[in-house]
User: What shape does this take?
Amino acid sequence: MNKTRSRLKILTSKKKLTIARWLQRIIMIWRRLFGKRYETQVVRGGIRWQIDLHEGIDFGIFFFGVFEYLTTGAYKKIVKSDSVVVDIGANLGAHVLRLAKLVGDGGRVIAIEPTDYAFSKLQANLALNPQLSLRVLPIQAFLGANSSDDPPASLYAKWPLSPGEDSHEDHYGKLADVGVMETRTLDNLLSELNPGKIDFMKIDVDGYEAKILQGSERILKNDRPIIILELAPSCLRECGSSVEELLEVLVGNDYELLDIVFRKPLPKEAESLENILAQGSSCNILAWPSELFNRDQSPDTASSPVKKIYGSLS
Assistant: This one.
């Protein structure tokens, strides 16, 4: 576990942003020499993107070709043709369109984003990829634990590389208006859509992960999707939640936690899990149905279900 802990502590959000900001400055010096602007269209991995180089997610796609390389590498091993996938916190579609390529014509990606700012960017990127967009159902909705709860007026959806006074002090995000007036639960929303069995979910909602999972109990019990979600203790606390609450719903529904890099088991105790992360940092982790996992067997064992499904990131 020591190796896993040190790996998860490599970069805080501030350090990541600092590196990206310096790369952006170098690139923009070169672009200005040729009269190019911050806004542009690029093709990366066969997907066309509308890019604003002021923004962190956009810049990641522009420079690296993907946003969240390790997360992308992980779900490429998990999501199969004809899968039904839910992306909660879809933002501009950085994962949505790549997931759409993976599911094929027989699959479906349900992309959920609550803010006007990010949802409009998602729609723009879908419009640039008409064939992939046929596999995507974009929905502007705020998800929570109970439909009786009021949605927040704004959420973090902008990640500028040059933070201002109104940026979050830890992750430097900026708030954007939420464009819906009611809270939905994922269970109720999917009951209306009736998309079939959910095979995979990605959840990155800056602190609302536990509440969304509380409103997804039927999906967790019946469909047993593999989940990639953000673990951000400080964001959970800001949203009136906690790592304890997150573990309660996942462990209570017989899920195991895995490090996304080494595919090693993570602690199921809140304090131990928080200690893996540096103060103010976050990482994406895997939540794996327990019937596909045996803590007494290494996930890398040839006969392990994790190994068979997930394979290797190398």
The first strand starts at residue 39 and ends at 44.
